Amino acid sequence: MANFVIVGTQWGDEGKGKIVDLLAEFADCVVRFQGGNNAGHTMVVNGEEFISHLVPSGILQEKTCIIGNGVVVDPGVLVQELDYLNNKGIDVGPGKLKISEKAHVIMPYHKKIDHAREEMKGDKKIGTTGRGIGPCYEDKATRRGIRFIDLIDPEAFREKLNAIIDEKNFYLSEFHSSKKLIIENIIDEYTRYAQRLAPYVTNISIVIDQAIRENKQVLFEGAQGTHLDIDHGTYPYVTSSNTVSGNACCGSGVGPKAITGVTGIVKAYTTRVGQGPFPTELLDETGENIQKKGAEFGATTGRRRRCGWLDMVILKNAALLNSLTGLAITKMDVLDGLETVKICTAYEYKGELLRDFPASLKVLAACTPVYETHPGWTEDISSVRSIENLPQNAKKYLRRIEELCDVPIDIVSVGPQRDETIVVRNPFA
Ligand code: GDP
Ligand code: IMO
Ligand code: MG
Predict the structure, then answer these.
(1) Domain check: are 138 and 57 in the same one?
(2) C-alpha angle 286/291/296, rounded to 5°?
(3) Could you tell me which of 216, 198, 202 has the C-alpha nearest to residue 253?
(4) From atom 21 of ligand 1, which residue's Cα is the shortest distance away?
(5) Does ligand 2 lie within 6 Å of residue 85's CB atom?
(6) Which residue among 21, 41, 110, 139 is the active-site one?
(7) Is the residue at 246 inside a domain?
(8) Do both 97 and 108 map to the same domain?
């Protein structure tokens, strides 16, 4: 019996969707436990691409998919995703998908506030996805949020909305010079969503507990990445939830005893979308080439991702914060053809070597990466299916990552398709 958490180790977009889709074959249910439709998780099966924002990435393997209480859900986006999957002939009925009654609902004012704040910040903006994620978590923390259990109860919904709408409209119109929202329009729109989604809403902790008691295998699917975590990331250039593995428990209502392992997804280089520090960022031709070859555009906003070398300072931090038991290295094929590849092993700060990730953005800004340079490989590795058949230098690169991180590599991904993968050790086996 194994219950695994999958987390991003960098700044998101590591390829979590691909690995969750791959491993979901061995799981009985897949649970999203935080974030919302700021996430964009890509799965490519038989040449067809599907980007999931809310529905867990186990859906193409037709596993029970669960949206946990820690997720903030835009019901309009969820309905669109369900329609899309239905049209593809994938069963997304209430037997297959469950939504926590305690998950918070993203409201129109959350999205408006997200946009208005970013605009006001100018060059100090976070570069959010504009999906209302931060404002929704903010209302959850200040105890003014609307949960799914309220959404599907027309009386409770009206009452909760009535209690907050004047304040939201005052803030939007007076502080941001934005148009006011009309409560009846919101009620009309959200009543439609409520009717459609009500059959899916349930106590998901009981569903997961039952699955674990029956020795079924559960996969917890993280969104974003460790360095976007609200506590442990490059604050304030972070998202508004805990992205680390510990939150798999809080965000789905299961105890830590249930978790048997944590796989960290590591892109073979580093990317970041949005603002914030990025010590190994390449602002030269090499960075541009990686961006092009890796097709590094955000799966949610289409923004160009910033690219740089692999950073072991952040990976070691991720190993520690998540209790990683295994790594999945993705996008190795993107490094094909480079004369040399670099790994950052420490930062230099005022003549000193830093091996631990600093909390101060001021310190981080003054750090320069210390690199090891390794010879690259010329071969196209996308058709390789075993570690032994990888070029010698690719193997050395992987071994060095394992050594520096002190966590074994379980999976190496060499292309976006489900089968373009080398499985060294199946965490579920
Ligand atoms: P996620 O948010 O962590 O699920 O990652 P995204 O889906 O946002 O971004 C990862 C991108 O890389 C997607 O376009 C994937 O299809 C693609 N991808 C995943 N693994 C590989 C790989 O091994 N090689 C290549 N070339 N692309 C990959
Ligand atoms: P997946 O799950 C990459 C980034 C945004 C911004 C910051 C805050 O696909 O890896 P938010 O809208 O969450 O308030 O934005 O976080 N961000 C992501 N970057 N991948 C993601 O998700 C992200 N989700 C949020 O770009 O910098
Ligand atoms: Mg993504």
Answers:
(1) no
(2) 160
(3) 202
(4) 416
(5) no
(6) 41
(7) yes
(8) no
C-alpha distances out from residue 236 to 124, 191, 245, 326, 409, Å: 10, 35, 20, 29, 31
Tell me, what CATH number does 155's domain have?
1.10.300.10
Closest CA to 199 of 266, 240, 148, 129: 148
CATH number for the domain that contains residue 219: 3.40.440.10
Query: How high is the pLDDT of residue 301?
Result: 87
Measure the CA–CA gap between 375 and 392, rounded to whole angstroms.
10
Q: What angle do CA 172, 176, 178 make, to 5 degrees?
A: 60
Dihedral sign computed on CA atoms, order 6, 9, 11, 16: negative
Q: Give the count of alpha carbons within 13 A of 153, CB side only.
A: 10
Residue pair 82/55 in contact by the 8 Å Cβ criterion: yes
Q: Identify which of 58, 69, 133 has the alpha carbon closest to the alpha carbon of residue 96.
A: 58
Whether 127 is in the pocket of ligand 2, judged by its Cβ within 6 Å, is yes
Is there a cis peptide before residue 236, judged by omega within 30 degrees of 0?
yes
Q: How many CA atoms lie within 13 A of 420 on its CB side?
A: 22
- Domain span including residue 175: 104-197
Specify the pLDDT at position 127.
Answer: 95
Q: Which residues of the chain have pLDDT under 70?
A: none
| pLDDT tens digits, one per residue of 146-172 | 999 999 999 999 999 999 999 999 999
The pLDDT, as a whole number, for residue 82 is 97
d(CA 330, CA 16): 9
DSSP output for 202-219? E-HHHHHHHHHHTT--EE
Q: How many whole angstroms separate alpha carbon 165 and alpha carbon 5? A: 38
Q: Is the CB of residue 204 less than 8 Å from the CB of residue 69?
A: yes
Q: How far apart are CA 49 and CA 46, in angstroms?
A: 8
Distance 407 CA to ligand 1 centre (A): 22
Query: Near ion ligand 3, which residues have CB within 5 Å?
Result: 13, 40, 299
- Asked whether residue 398 falls in the same domain as residue 297, the answer is yes
| pLDDT, position 320 | 98
pLDDT for residue 132: 98
Q: Which tokens is 342 given?
A: 């670099």
Indicate whether 428 belongs to any domain.
Answer: no
